[in-house]
Amino acid sequence: MADTAIFDVDGTLVDTNYQHALAWYRAFRRFDLTVPLWRIHRSIGMGGDQLVTAVAGEQVERERGDALRDGWVEEYRPMLGEVQPFADARRLLTGVRDRGFTLVLASSGRRDQVEHYLDLLDGRAVAGAWTTSDDVERTKPEPDLLHAAMDKVPGRSAVMVGDSTWDCVAAAKAGIPSYAVRTGGFSVEELREAGAKEVFESLGDLQRHLDDTLLARPS
Known about the structure:
This protein has two domains: 4-15 and 84-212, 3-Layer(aba) Sandwich (Rossmann fold); 17-81, DNA polymerase, domain 1 (Orthogonal Bundle), CATH 1.10.150. Helix 1 crosses helix 4 (58-76), helix 3 (48-56) crosses helix 4 and helix 9 (165-173) runs parallel beside helix 10. It is globular. It has eleven helices and six strands. By secondary structure, the chain is of the alpha/beta class. Helix 9 (165-173) links the parallel strand 4 (158-162) and strand 5.
C-alpha cells in the first residue's frame, strides 16, 4: 500500500502535450529537419534529453541536440499562456490529499514552466513537494524523476498517475504502480502494455473510481 501519490504534470494535470509537440516540430524545422508531428507526439512524455534521439536519431542528437532543446524552449514559451488545467485536476488533487496521501507533483519541465503550472493548479497549497528539470539528469522513461520525487517527502511507498506510456515505463522501473489517464492522447492498449494498472478516460473518471484503486486510502 502507498502513502504517497505522485502526479505527472504535463499532459496529466495541465493540457500541454500538443503544444509541446508543435514546439518540437518548429524547433526541428529551424534546422530544415522535418519530423512528422505524429512521431513527435508518440514521444511526448520523454524529456528533451531523450526525445531528440528517439525521433531523429543519434546523429542529430550529437550534432544539434542542445540547439534543438533551446529551440523547443523558445518555441514553447509563447504558448505557455494558452495552457489550462484539465477539468477536475484541482478537485482530484484535493480529494487524494484529503484521503491522507502526501502529494508530489513530478515534472521534468524547466523551473519557469513548473512555476506557471503550480500557479494554474494552486499546487503549492495542495502538494507536499514538486520537481523540476533541476532535480534530474535523466528524464523518462528512466526512473530518476520518480526517485527524486520520493526523496522530497518522508513517504515510504508511492503510486503514480500519468498520461503517457513513458510515465508508466518509468514507474515500473522505479518499482511504483501506476494508473493512467487518456488526457495525453495515448490509447488504452498502449498504456496497459506500458504497465498501467488501470486506464481512465479523464481525471474526473479517476476521481469517481478512487475507491477501486490504490488511492482509496494510504496504508
